[in-house]
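FAQ

Q: What does a record look like?
A: Structure on top, sequence underneath. For example:
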């Protein structure tokens, strides 16, 4: 059907199907995701470990290889890049205020009209480095256009046909 709508153009049909899949995933975002998996990943000879909860809507999807692979990839990513929070919404306000104060102190030599923008830019960059969903997927970092974990989550949701959410994680490092 997509091929017919695209007038026989395979590339256009593929693009249309991918766009529709991502739009459908956005519609599913509000649905309850109470099933899923808790997965663990141990790295570096037992020196780093991750415990991760990822939810979906049904236990049927939670048992699929595609879902299990997504969960494992996210756990591996957490072990490698060590995020502190799932999303920017999870970052405590006092932490954000403290970081903002540091960047404001560093920006004293920047002209007044550009100072606020510079501070907010540094803060946004810092938050994207410590928030899982905003980080570039570790396996895509050598790509021209790496995907973020959020993009990876949306793709998984579109491919599985269910809302997929990363609920929480714990990172353990030997000696920390």
């Amino acid at each position: 059907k997509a091929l017919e709508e695209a007038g026989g153009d395979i590339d256009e049909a593929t693009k249309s199907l991918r766009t529709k899949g991502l739009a459908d995933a956005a519609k599913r975002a509000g649905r309850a995701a109470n099933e899923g998996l808790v997965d663990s990943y141990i790295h570096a000879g037992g020196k780093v470990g991750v415990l991760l909860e990822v939810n979906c809507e049904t236990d049927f999807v939670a048992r699929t290889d595609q879902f299990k692979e997504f969960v494992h990839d996210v756990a591996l990513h957490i072990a490698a890049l060590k995020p502190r929070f799932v999303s920017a919404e999870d970052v405590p306000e006092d932490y954000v205020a403290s970081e903002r104060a540091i960047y404001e102190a560093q920006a004293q030599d920047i002209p007044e009209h550009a100072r606020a923008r510079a501070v907010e830019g540094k803060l946004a960059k810092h938050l994207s480095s410590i928030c899982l969903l905003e980080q570039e997927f570790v396996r895509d970092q050598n790509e021209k256009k790496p995907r973020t974990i959020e993009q990876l989550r949306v793709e998984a949701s579109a491919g599985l046909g269910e809302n997929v959410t990363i609920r929480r994680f714990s990172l353990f490092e030997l000696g920390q």
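Q: Is there anything notable about this one?
A: The two ends are 55 Å apart (CA to CA).
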